[in-house]
Amino acid sequence: MMDNKPEECSVCFNDYDDNQLRPRTLPCGHTFCSQCIDNAIKNGQLTCPSCRAEHAATAATQFPISYAVEAFVRKLKNIQLTAEEVVPAKPYEGPARGISKKLHSLVQEQKSIISTLIISCEEVLSQLGEYRGQLGDWKTHHLQLQNRLYALVEQNKSAMKLLELEDTSVEDMTTQGEEGKTQLQAMLGSFDTVNTPQKVDTTIDLADECSMKVEDWLQKCQTLFPDVKTVHTSVKVQETIREALEMMTTETGATAEPVYLGDTATSIMKKVQEITGQIPQKQLTVEDLRRRMREPVKRLMEAGRVLAVQEDQDGRRSARITLQDGQLYLHPLLRQPTPAHAHTLQESEVVGVLEPSCTLAFLDLGWAGSTRGRVTIRLTPDTPLARQFVLLCTGQRGHTYRNTKLLNVEYKGGPGEWVEGGDYESNDGEGGAPLLPDLQGQYRETGRAGDVWARWGPGGPRCAQFVITTRDLQDGFPWPNVFGDVVSGLDVVRAAVKHSDITEVTVVDCGVVLPL
What does pTM read for this prediction? Predict the structure, then answer.
């Protein structure tokens, strides 16, 4: 909706002025007065009152003044003043008394030059203000990254301290064990030299005492080692830091190649975008994601900075779109804050490319604290159970398979082995109600490894649950209601089946492959 009163702040409804209410423009493009921006900053973050975009901010002064809005307000006030005055007599338009026409022409020419320069100054001042706001954002992001790096370093120090304490404890116990072993060897030799009953009794007593000490040492070793906290902390910290390092795309000390900035008439921020390869926010479309996507878009995709957003009466949800091995993946819609640096497009646009039917979905399985692999499933086109599976992989209806656990395994280790999951409601096997009113359709009946089917049938109260067959069925009736088959990652499912407790295996993430 267009603002019918651009001269006033849309938050406090006061007219802009040149003091506390100066207009300032946020990186998302919306303008508000300085006072309202200061009031909206909480914990170093500013949420735009119009589009809800998140910006790192500590004060309104880091955002550029909108000189264009100020100029408009001044012009509007002048127009209002003129309208209120009595129209004066037509002023004398000839040259001032004592000035020739030639000199008057020179004066008018100089006034025109100065007016043009003033406009140019205001435009560049506006650009500098916007650029300074961008620099402020970058400085804030660097500080946030620095704090996160410091936190990683502190975690690493804590893990190393635990390892050092554990190593010291192991060293002490090793010394005790070696001393005990030496004593036992000495006692063993003593029995070869005893020649009187008295010496035998004495040697046996000493041997019993030495044996008790060694047995106590053995028990302590079993009880003390390994220290669960030390080992778990070390492994998790190593994984976290390793993942952070693998995400680094440039080498330390690397210098960027020089970029030709082209026409000097280009605005400062457009030059910044050329240098950084950035794409202006709110200008990303589905067309940008097509096969021959531009390199800046590809970098955004690989960094996970492209989001599909959906807004309804309950608020805003967003879904990551990622690029891996040349494939585009749409992850489930979640209620999560949209990062200030993210590039967004409407989820309805993205879902539009999935119709009339999506044929590839994925489930990421994990256990023991880490993701173990991706299972890609080819769905039978135009079947209701397949459409429901897509809805639960994308979260379009608010529910998703994400964070659900596998429920049970049947025929474990034998023909027809299968595993069940997908209870998005209660996560215990008692839920999984249908999302679509009618799931009846033409479904296959097979008994092959990799089949994906509905155990409870298309009309059951738990028909959102799914089953994946992991071993071929050799005899007996084939499985009914098959609506898909695993095309990659069946080894991940088989590894999950071998896990000691199948309910510890979870769907860490899910989604669909975008057919772009």
Answer: 0.50
